[in-house]
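Subgroup meeting minutes
Present: P.N., E.W., G.H.
Scribe: E.W.

1. P.N. recapped why we're keeping a running log of single-chain structure predictions: easier to compare across weeks, and new members can see raw inputs and outputs side by side.
2. G.H. added today's entry (269 aa).
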Amino acid sequence: MKEFKSFYKEVAGNEGGKCRYNTRLDTYGCGCQHDCSYCYAKSLLNFRNLWDAKEPSVADIGKIERRIAKIPKGSIVRLGGMTDCFQPLEGQEHVTREVIRLLNQYGIGYLIVTKSDMVCEYMHILDKEKAHIQISTTWIPCEKAVSTRRRIAAIEALHAEGFDVAVRLSPYVPQFVDFEQLNSIRCNKIIVEFLRVNHWIKQWLPLDYSEWTVKHAGYQHLPLEKKIEYLAKVTGFDEVSVCEDVTEHYEYWRECVNHDKNDCCNLRK
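Output recorded in log:
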């Protein structure tokens, strides 16, 4: 198994300037077994021949602990920034499980972003004061992750147990969404992230991209008025936030939509 050495990163630039949780810890890298056609990480790494969806690299837990020991207590790190920390490989390697134990031990919070229901198997080690979970739902038919039905069941199970959990509609592609199912999810929070596209994603995800007319930071985006129109279809949640890359759009969501103006991830503190 190849070692993933770049497991820790503090994201800067356009994205890092907007994201409050820009310290990322990836337990697996240089590939993800979900291999989603719309994945921005895949589009960044594939053309450099650094993407291996069949055999992703695995971070060394000893090196991870040495890095965690230097993180200030009370910080929040993001698990699953570039690849899913609960991709099927976790069932074999258990690196994410051991990282969660270490973060609990060192008093560090963690934001888990995943397309898997495997996180529910770890309820017994998740610390309700430190764990924040976002489970992505998309209804995009070409995904390799577990079914949307299973992801929704995981969201509802975590919510029922009192965890800080949110639906993450990411990427939000309205043409694919079952809105009746989405708006019936028993969870009070949702994070919406609209699809951003580049040359590679256009090749992998068959879609009419004529509406994606705004260019920003190397990607094409929907115009703000279209995003507002499509966001209106999301009606089943008390707390709505939008994760945004385009600066002008980010400012609009922060002032007019996001439940917490200071935190678009809307984590429970």
